[in-house]
């Protein structure tokens, strides 16, 4: 068993090289990792709120979000529990596109992502500005399933996947670094998989 895992890992390494962060192994399925349960969400009352250190706080209804230009990002995702899933096709609104609809204040350095169900995670504004980061509503051409974050989740593929908040409901722009849920339990404040920033 241990031997199988080791040989699997070296095959993955041969196939993917630098694309695969250290200590990760490739899976074909898509595990669900949720602390707590999947929240019940009603699209008619669903909102995405932009708050905190922004020029003007704004809210998007589901229809308003759908009306924004969409994009497809193909990316690999890396969970800190050591699985990676390659070549995911997410569709949604790029964070860079979202920035055409509100203006962070110069003092905004970080964003606390708040989710339906209570989960939070912190991310720097510069990490959110990376070109592949999006608020996704589809995966592989299909609506996200409830357990993977329907109706809307963040996808920030260059960081460990715990940063990719499912059921996101609020982006709170803040001026100082603050830990989110897992970060306050000892997970790394940033979580770069290539540097193996797993724990603090
Ligand atoms: N709201 C919320 N978002 C979350 C989580 C969670 O528990 N609640 N888990 C995180 C973790 S630890 C991981 S690895 C990924 C898992 O996403 P998946 O279940 O779609 O694979 O979601 C992240 N986003
Ligand atoms: Mo995770």
Describe the structure.
This protein has a single domain, classed as Oxidoreductase, molybdopterin-binding domain (Sulfite Oxidase, Chain A, domain 2, Alpha-Beta Complex), CATH 3.90.420. The protein contains five helices and eleven strands; from the N terminus they run H-E-E-E-H-E-E-H-E-E-H-E-E-E-E-H. It has helices at 2-16, 62-66, 95-98, 125-128, 181-184; strands at 25-26, 47-52, 58-61, 71-78, 83-94, 110-115, 120-124, 134-139, 142-143, 153-155, 168-174. The strands form two sheets. Strands 1, 4, 5, 8, 9 and 10 form a six-stranded mixed sheet that branches. It has a five-stranded mixed sheet with strand order 3-2-11-6-7. It starts with a helix and ends in a 16-residue tail after the last helix. The site of the ligand Nc1nc2c(c(=O)[nH]1)N[C@H]1C(S)=C(S)[C@@H](COP(=O)(O)O)O[C@H]1N2 has 18 residues, from loops. Molybdenum atom binds next to loops.
